[in-house]
Sequence to fold (576 residues):
Amino acid sequence: MIFESLAEKLQKSLNKLKGKGKLSEKDVKQVMREVKLALLEADVNFKVVKKFVNSVKERAVGHEVMESLTPGQQVIKIVNDELTKLMGEEQKKIEFAPQPPTIIMMCGLQGAGKTTTSGKLGILLKKKGKSPLLVACDIYRPAAIKQLEVVGEKADIPVFSMGDKQNPVNIAKASIEHAKKNGYDVVILDTAGRLHIDEELMDELENIKSEVNPKEILLVVDAMTGQDAVTVAESFNDKLGIDGVVLTKLDGDARGGAALSIRAVTDKPIKFVGMGEKLDQLEPFYPDRMASRILGM
Amino acid sequence: KSYKKIDEELFEELEEVLITADVGVNTTMRIIEDVKDKVKERKITEVEEIRELLKEELKEILTEVDENISLNIEPSPAIVLVVGVNGVGKTTTIGKLAYRLKNEGKKVLIAAGDTFRAAAIEQLTEWSNRAGVDIIAHQEGADPAAVIYDGIQAAKARKSDVLICDTAGRLHNKKNLMNELNKIFRIVEREYPEATKEVLLVVDATTGQNAVLQAKTFKEACDISGIVLTKLDGTAKGGVVLAVQSELKVPVKLVGVGEKIYDLQDFDPDNFVEAIFSE
Ligand SMILES: Nc1nc2c(ncn2[C@@H]2O[C@H](COP(=O)(O)OP(=O)(O)OP(=O)(O)O)[C@@H](O)[C@H]2O)c(=O)[nH]1
Ligand SMILES: Nc1nc2c(ncn2[C@@H]2O[C@H](COP(=O)(O)OP(=O)(O)OP(=O)(O)O)[C@@H](O)[C@H]2O)c(=O)[nH]1
Ligand SMILES: [K+]
Ligand SMILES: [Mg+2]
Ligand SMILES: [Mg+2]
Fold:
């Protein structure tokens, strides 16, 4: 490890508290400084960190320092519990429409992993007995349609495309008709990457939404994202009302503070995590694991 | 915002600006300490002067390595190897760069060294068409080192001025993929010793502190000599390059500011630093 782990740091600064009874405000303040730095180092958004640290402070002051545990572990447990709670306590699944097809719209910044995740999600749903259709709504990126076609072929899932001369809203609409006619019960819309400040392209997503009314709008976010994650998530959520988040590239060694940031500002669950480039590398999200990862434990 | 006096609160606000720009805790604290020292030394009393001092400090870090941060492609022939983690903008940057160098009158060739990602070759081919330059490509699944080898032979035969090589996105913590990259790097060294070399690490401006680890590991595998900071057209400031610069001394050379072929600019430290302080 390059960083001294938070656990070690806290242990050091808390060793002197051993057998002290209750944590004083001063003790907690000192410890929370370490927690704050660790969270910032993990890319949790500055404002989110401030709020989080204040709420944990309140909980920790006056807390019994149990003899059986070291005070450091005690505080870490409080921090970890609060973090897990904030991250959403239970696992959230994909919701299916009562009337098929269930429409899932993938959206997010450029290069986040939407196309890859579309294929992965298709495989996952197929394993559950669903019959998914992938839809090529990215008419902008060079070879985006071809990429989805290759993904579809590898995943053995059909791809609906109308080339790059049609409006993505029309493509989405036509794909739903196609799905209904051909018995596909899940439609996954792979949209082009876009900046949250690109009004024209954000309007496009809003139009797709109002035309086809997706059951799930999933925001795909790169786990390496830094402080800007809140701005991005907030913008997409305000515009579209997202239903959940997919955090990709967690097979890297980024601490993934974006997870906490996004959760804090949108209150929307992280539903899946991407664990590799291969199409079977999509996993459910475990809030407790994410909490430990962010804390560097 | 205007501040009335120089106190801890002011420094905390400046700290917040840097951290919010992804400069990172350690680098931020180091910078703020330096500024505090200088404030004392120079007996500065005006709040606005402190801002200017901080800006100067940041610019100094960014130009520490070299005042003139231009691409190392002279004299011809030159080879530019483009590397980085997944989805940061490598292939797009190559399209933009090929277009730019061609417009400067250079003979450019590109090599499709990403044989792994779905339709990566088609994507680069489309960029080669847009830029109007030739491309050397094999099939999906082929050995990337063999593609680069062929690219070098073709560049020699065609007397290209610049050969730009795409590589597959890879996370730096994947040992086997980093070894593969090192193999490509060694082929370049062995087969094209006469070429001027530039190895560009592409970093997405939205990236947080992980970029420091990326730069460290890529430097070990293929001796990166410059950074391309992409997606600066978003709201992220890309401040992590300050941490990368101060720890690894690899300068930012180019920035990506959009998805169009002309959306590539030389890195301008003044603009970059001003943007950190803008809303
Ligand atoms: N290591 C790793 N790579 C991933 C993961 N998910 C996606 N990728 C890679 O990230 C890169 C970008 O993925 P895409 O699926 O093309 O991303 P996108 O969001 O569709 O990109 P645009 O359409 O250009 O906006 C590719 O190299 C993928 O292989 C993941 O979970 N882990
Ligand atoms: N807004 C913006 N988007 C960019 C910029 N550079 C690249 N992109 C977009 O980012 C996405 C990924 O770009 P690629 O060039 O495919 O990235 P890559 O690093 O080659 O990706 P892999 O080969 O999958 O690792 C695409 O949607 C590009 O259009 C930029 O400067 N600004
Ligand atoms: K920006
Ligand atoms: Mg895509
Ligand atoms: Mg590429």
Summary: Chain A has eleven helices and eight strands. The mean pLDDT of chain A is 90.
